[in-house]
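pls design
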C-alpha cells in the first residue's frame, strides 16, 4: 500500500531497568551456550518501579509520542493498542483505558491481537482510517508487553530469544511530522499457525498447570510434521515479498534501505529469519539496541525506530524499514522517510 500524505509526528517508548544476562546465567536461569547464539547482553525487566504494568507503560510511551508530535488530543481520531500477551486484566479492554488517559476519551480505540506483529501490522488499519477522515484523522498506535512469572519464563519460553518488557508508540498525522510513512505491506502464512499451537488442546480458560508457557515445546510436533526447512522457506518467502512490496511502493529497492527496525530476536535467529530473506546487513539494523532490551513482543519496532532517531543514526533523506514478524504468521514491512531532525532527543 502506497501511503499518501501520512506523516510520523511523534514516537515514544518506555523500557524498564535492564538486567544483565550474566546475572541470569549465574543464577541458573539462562546458560552461556544460548548467550553465544543470541549475543544478548541484558533484558528489560518491569516491576522495579511503580507504574510498570502493561497498560501504564503504554500510557508513558503514548504520552511521549503525543508530546513530541505537538498535536491536540481532538486531532487524534483513532487509537490502536497492540499487545501479544496479557494486557493487565481478563474481561477488560485495555485500549479504552489508554483512550481515556491519552485522548481524554476522544476518538475510537481498539485492541489489536496480532502477537509480535501487532504494532507494525496496525499501520494497515490506521492508514485507510486516516485517509477516509476529513477531521480527527491523526492516529496513535501503542504497544506494551510484560512477560512475567508465573505465566512466562522470559529466559526459556522460546528458542533463540529472551523476552523483555516495555512499551512504544507511534503518532501519525495527515498534516505534519518529522518523517513520512511511504508504504506498508503485509503477507500472511496461516499454514504456520500451528507452530505456536502444537498439539495443545483448546480450553475454556488459562490452565495454571501449563505455566510457565513453553512455545519451543509446542513447536516440536509441528516441526516434525512439516519440517524445519519447509517452515523456514515459507516464512522467508513471505517476508521477502512483504519487503519487496513495501520497497516498490516507496519507489526504492530493498538495498536502498538506510536502516531496519527489526524484531529483537537473538542474533542467530534474527539472521536466519529476517536478515537473510531481506539481504539486510546486521550493522544497518537495531540489533545492538535489541541485544540490550530483549524481544518485547509488539513493542520492538517503534522502540527501535525511537532509538534510531534519538541516537542520530538516521537523518533527512534516510529511509527506515520497520520489519514485523508475528505468530499466525504475519509479516509486515513499512518504509518511513526522515524529512528533518526533530527538536527532541538527547543527541539531536
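designed seq:
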Amino acid at each position: 500500500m502506497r501511503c499518501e500524505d501520512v506523516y510520523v509526528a511523534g514516537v515514544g517508548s518506555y523500557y524498564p531497568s535492564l538486567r544483565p544476562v550474566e546475572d541470569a546465567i549465574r543464577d541458573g536461569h539462562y546458560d552461556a551456550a544460548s548467550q553465544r547464539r543470541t549475543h544478548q547482553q541484558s533484558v528489560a525487566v518491569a516491576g522495579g518501579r511503580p507504574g510498570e504494568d502493561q497498560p501504564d507503560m503504554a500510557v508513558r510511551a503514548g504520552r511521549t509520542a503525543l508530546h513530541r508530535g505537538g498535536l491536540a488530543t481532538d486531532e487524534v481520531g483513532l487509537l490502536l493498542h497492540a499487545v501479544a500477551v496479557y494486557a493487565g486484566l481478563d474481561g477488560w479492554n485495555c485500549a479504552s483505558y489508554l483512550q481515556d488517559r491519552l485522548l481524554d476519551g476522544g476518538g475510537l480505540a481498539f485492541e489489536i491481537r496480532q502477537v509480535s506483529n501487532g504494532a507494525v501490522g496496525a499501520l494497515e488499519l490506521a492508514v485507510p482510517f486516516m485517509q477516509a477522515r476529513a477531521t480527527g484523522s491523526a492516529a496513535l498506535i501503542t504497544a506494551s508487553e510484560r512477560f512475567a512469572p508465573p505465566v512466562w519464563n522470559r529466559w526459556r519460553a522460546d528458542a533463540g530469544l529472551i523476552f523483555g518488557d516495555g512499551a512504544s508508540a507511534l503518532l501519525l498525522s495527515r498534516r505534519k511530522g518529522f518523517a513520512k510513512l511511504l508504504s506498508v505491506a503485509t503477507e500472511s502464512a496461516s499454514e504456520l499457525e500451528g507452530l505456536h499451537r502444537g498439539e495443545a488442546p483448546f480450553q475454556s480458560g488459562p490452565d495454571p498447570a501449563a505455566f510457565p508457557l513453553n512455545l519451543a515445546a509446542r513447536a516440536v510436533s509441528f516441526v516434525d510434521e512439516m519440517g524445519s526447512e519447509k517452515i523456514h522457506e515459507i516464512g522467508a518467502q513471505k517476508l521477502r515479498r512483504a519487503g519487496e512490496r513495501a520497497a516498490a511502493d516507496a519507489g526504492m529497492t530493498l538495498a536502498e534501505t538506510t536502516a531496519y527496525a527489526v524484531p529483537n530476536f537473538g542474533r542467530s535467529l534474527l539472521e536466519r529469519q529476517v536478515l537473510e530473506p531481506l539481504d539486510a546487513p546486521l550493522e544497518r539494523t537495531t540489533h545492538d539496541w535489541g541485544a540490550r532490551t530483549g524481544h518485547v513482543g509488539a513493542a520492538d519496532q517503534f522502540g527501535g525506530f525511537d532509538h534510531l532517531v534519538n541516537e542520530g543514526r538516521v537523518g533527512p533523506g534516510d529511509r527506515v524499514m520497520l520489519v514485523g514478524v508475528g505468530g499466525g504468521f504475519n509479516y509486515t514491512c513499512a518504509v518511513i522517510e526522515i524529512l528533518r531532525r526533530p527538536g527532541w532527543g538527547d543527541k539531536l
